[in-house]
Amino acid sequence: MARNDRNTKGKVGKSLAADTSGAARLVIFVVLLFIVTGAGLSLLFNVGGIRDTVVALLFPSKIDGQLRSNEDSELQQQLKAIEDEKNRLKDLESRLNTLKGQLEDKQRQLEQWELELEQKEKEMEELQQKLSAQFETIKDIAKVYENMDAEQAASILSEMEDTALVIQILKNMPVERSAEVLGEMDPKKAAELTRQMAGQ
Asked: Which helix H or strand E contains 46, and what residues bound it?
């Protein structure tokens, strides 16, 4: 009987060991399944850049080629941007040179106008001095005629061909004295001088 108990205990122990071994295998299988599934999902969704790392480890030349291709593409874009900027700067320089030329032309024109203006001012000053001198001379001549006898002054002024000078002389005499001289002149001559003195 003791022998039967031992056999029974031995069978139960073997059965229990077999059940424990099967359960352990199941647990290991499930754990491995979780690990493989997690790794697959990590690779699929590139969690933490793991896919890039794995690809870099398995295919280093492919990654280098892609990186070089990306770098070349970026370099080409930068070179194009630099070339575009150079062209823009050339256009700006061309426009600036055009504006500079126009400004220099305007500057030369302004300098020419300044020279002409200075010349005109000089001419005006000379003319003013000349007119001032003539005015003083006419005033002096008018005093001479003012001191003459009215008949004698009328006779001389009537013979003068420069009517404008006669008018200036008469205008520079006192009104009473020029009236006396005009009264001694030929009426037609006196009327013409009077009309011109009135500006008609």
From this structure: none
